[in-house]
Amino acid sequence: MFTGIIEETGRIERIVAGAQSLRITISGHKILSDIEIGCSIAVNGVCLTATTFDAHSFTADVMPESVRMTTLADLKPGSPVNLERAMAVGGRFGGHVVAGHVDGIGTIRTIEKQDNAVVFTIAAAPEVMEYIVYKGSVAIDGASLTVAGRSDTQFTISIIPHTIKETILAHAKPGTKVNIETDIFGRYIRQFMTLPPADNTAVPATGKQSGGITSELLAKNGFI
């Protein structure tokens, strides 16, 4: 679990491509201070596991699902990346709950200066946009941000200079692809609201669940 507060930007040192997977080596400083084998580190918002490390870098495997769902396949040696260690128990919670499980890829449409802020407009697929809520939280390449506006096909985020400076958004331009993770609580609520009754939990062959909260379901479980 992460907070979306980027600790530093690292760089891709090496990429080894498998048939559908990747093995990437990333340099850093702060995130290596207490690293151990098996540690979770968010790389551009993607939760990866450190498999080896030395004084200057760590290596992680990227499975096919993560390659397919994220922008990691577009990285090259020298590419800057946002890095965050897993949230420490008892630490300050400055962002929002970020799982490191990317929902989809968005495309930056426009970048506009607005007084002391920079406004990004990002287009995303319908299955991502349905979880984008005005004034809600969203993680862009792992950075915790607030939705400033939305339509059916795109949304805006307003970013202060500090966040721009401390993340790879400083290198972004129109056309840049970004990883999007929507609010995890919204995803769970949507899932629970569409669960079938307890005595009919089989998922149809389509892979989609049907049903929902009905008066019969509430009565059966003692709520009415």
List descriptors.
224 residues, mainly beta, six-stranded antiparallel barrel, 12 strands, 14% helix
Description:
This protein is mainly β and 224 residues long. Helices cover 14% and strands 37% of the residues. The protein is built from 5 helices and 12 strands. It has helices at 64-69, 126-129, 161-166, 184-193, 215-220; strands at residues 8-17, 22-27, 40-43, 46-53, 57-62, 80-85, 104-114, 117-123, 137-140, 143-150, 154-159, 177-182.
Q: What is this structure's SSE topology?
A:
Blueprint: E1 8-17, E2 22-27, E3 40-43, E4 46-53, E5 57-62, H1 64-69, E6 80-85, E7 104-114, E8 117-123, H2 126-129, E9 137-140, E10 143-150, E11 154-159, H3 161-166, E12 177-182, H4 184-193, H5 215-220
| Coarse structural class | mainly beta
Summarize the main sheet: 6 strands, antiparallel, barrel
Specify the helix fraction band.
Answer: 10-25%
Strand content: 35-45%
Helix-strand string: EEEEEHEEEHEEEHEHH
Count of alpha and pi helical runs? 5
Summed over residues and divided by their number, the pLDDT gives a mean of 91
Shape by Cα distribution? globular
First-to-last CA distance: 36 Å
What is the count of β-strands?
Answer: 12
Spatial order of the strands in the main sheet?
A: 1-2-5-4-3-6
Rounded Rg: 19 Å
Extract low-pLDDT stretches. Answer: none
